[in-house]
């Protein structure tokens, strides 16, 4: 399972990410999906193209999703709907994408109830239940947990990331 | 199931998505990373993974887009349209 504890050893590609803090002031606030990872950088797909962010000296906020996607349309949508906003809004924006394969997890009972945003017709249409249920589902779909990670802990080759204590045979 | 297996499992749909988006090289990087994780952690690549990726050029094989799938007596023949490599596997 991808949990906040295992995140730094897990696959980062496909996760929604936001640059919370960085040495380079220009990359602060970048948000999108991780599209590639190298030893010292992350490539983030944002609405305005792929950005390469150095890991060192940067603080990332990753959203933990069960189904990683890189879909540029979803990001464009979320960016346009919610500019540089809280990451929770970014998650809502992703969910709004029509035809997204998002499904409610088994524990949909309001982990973190949140208001439904006014511009959510697609999300409302997604759930067959009534309006109230739709707004509820929007609020609670939140299996999405956001984890703040210091980029320095990610400095290593992606393929070797699992080496730390995970392998049984060594 | 450990983290390596989970990472491999997550990378296959990502590679598929990259092929759907027409970014074959991005699909290759995902497939190559999955293979690398498998060999470094002595994890097996799932059979689904073996059959949906080209072992020569590592692209995700999407029938009709990056792969041609034909049946011959007793086996399925998958040809990668990117590099021309042929994979066969039996069926009964």
From TrEMBL, chain A:
It catalyses: Endonucleolytic cleavage of RNA, removing 5'-extranucleotides from tRNA precursor. It comes from the Archaea. The keyword Nuclease applies. GO terms for biological process: tRNA 5'-leader removal. It is found in: Cytoplasm. Its EC number is 3.1.26.5. Residues 45-139 are annotated as: Disordered. Keywords: Cytoplasm, Endonuclease, Hydrolase, Nuclease, tRNA processing. One of its GO terms (molecular function) is ribonuclease P activity. GO terms for cellular component: cytoplasm; ribonuclease P complex. InterPro entries: RNase_P/MRP_Rpp29_sf (IPR036980), RNP1 (IPR023538), Rof/RNase_P-like (IPR023534), Rpp29/RNP1 (IPR002730). SMART domains: POP4. Pfam families: RNase_P-MRP_p29 (PF01868). Part of ribonuclease P, a protein complex that generates mature tRNA molecules by cleaving their 5'-ends. Consists of a catalytic RNA component and at least 4-5 protein subunits. Belongs to the eukaryotic/archaeal RNase P protein component 1 family. This is Ribonuclease P protein component 1. It comes from Halopenitus persicus. The gene is rnp1.
TrEMBL record, chain B:
Pfam families: Rpr2. One of its GO terms (molecular function) is ribonuclease P activity. It catalyses: Endonucleolytic cleavage of RNA, removing 5'-extranucleotides from tRNA precursor. Keywords: Cytoplasm, Endonuclease, Hydrolase, Metal-binding, Nuclease, tRNA processing, Zinc. InterPro entries: RNP4, Rpr2/Snm1/Rpp21. Its cofactor is Zn(2+). It is an enzyme of class 3 (hydrolase). Binds 1 zinc ion per subunit. GO terms for biological process: tRNA 5'-leader removal. GO terms for cellular component: cytoplasm; ribonuclease P complex. Coiled coil: none annotated. Consists of a catalytic RNA component and at least 4-5 protein subunits. Part of ribonuclease P, a protein complex that generates mature tRNA molecules by cleaving their 5'-ends. Belongs to the eukaryotic/archaeal RNase P protein component 4 family. This is Ribonuclease P protein component 4. It comes from Halopenitus persicus. The lineage of its organism: Archaea, Methanobacteriati, Methanobacteriota, Stenosarchaea group, Halobacteria.
């Amino acid at each position: 399972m991808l949990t906040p504890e295992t995140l730094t050893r897990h696959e980062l590609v496909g996760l929604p990410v936001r640059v919370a803090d960085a040495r380079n002031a220009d990359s602060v606030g970048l948000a999108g999906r991780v599209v590639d990872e190298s030893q010292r950088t992350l490539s983030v797909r944002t609405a305005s193209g792929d950005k390469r962010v150095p890991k060192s000296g940067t603080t990332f906020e990753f959203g933990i999703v069960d189904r990683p996607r890189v879909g540029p349309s979803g990001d464009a949508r979320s960016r346009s709907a919610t500019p540089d906003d809280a990451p929770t809004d970014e998650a809502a924006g992703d969910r709004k994408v029509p035809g997204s394969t998002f499904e409610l997890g088994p524990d949909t009972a309001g982990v973190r109830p949140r208001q439904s945003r006014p511009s959510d017709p697609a999300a409302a249409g997604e759930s067959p239940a009534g309006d109230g249920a739709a707004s509820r589902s929007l609020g609670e779909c939140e299996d999405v947990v956001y984890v703040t990670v210091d980029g320095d802990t990610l400095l290593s080759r992606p393929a070797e990331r699992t080496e730390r204590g995970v392998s049984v045979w060594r | 199931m450990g983290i390596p297996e989970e990472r491999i499992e997550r990378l296959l749909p990502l590679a598929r998505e990259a092929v759907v988006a027409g970014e074959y090289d991005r699909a290759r990087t995902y497939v190559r990373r999955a293979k690398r994780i498998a060999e470094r952690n002595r994890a097996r690549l799932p059979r689904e993974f073996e059959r949906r990726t080209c072992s020569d050029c590592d692209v995700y094989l999407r029938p009709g887009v990056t792969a041609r799938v034909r049946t011959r007596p007793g086996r399925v023949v998958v040809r990668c349209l990117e590099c021309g490599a042929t994979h066969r596997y039996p069926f009964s």
